[in-house]
Amino acid sequence: MSKMKITTLLLLVAIIYTVYAATFTVTVESALSSKFIPDTLDINEGDTVTWTKLTRHHNLKQVADSKSIKQVPNGIYSGPVELANTFSNTFRKNGTYYFVCEAFVECCNMRMTVNVFPKGQTRNTNNAQVLSLSIVLIAIVLLLQI
Hints:
Largest sheet: 4 strands, mixed
CATH topology: Immunoglobulin-like
Radius of gyration: 19 Å
CATH architecture: Sandwich
Low-confidence stretches: none
Structural class: alpha/beta
Strand content: 25-35%
């Protein structure tokens, strides 16, 4: 393999890995226990989180900290309980984000935390990393065939 091919390959891998943003899914458990699954999520800037199974009983609002129930002004909000369904948000800024379900935070302590790390910083092992690695490996195989 030529030096030019190797350089191109390494550059492509670096670009794909840096640019790739992942999507994570959080499910709302409603049966016997009202909770977000998972209740803690580690992601990178640019990643998207989609909350599914938000029903007429569950929604999502951003609060100031792990004990708060008051919504952050201009914070992330899926809308009133009656309107909620599936909701997505792309996190553009690193930091820790706290969320509650308005209807079930007081009775059931229905909360979750999203930890957003700077782009390129390693997040915890999860399906998104496996998918990201798979994309890089596919790119390598394709380049090797050129």
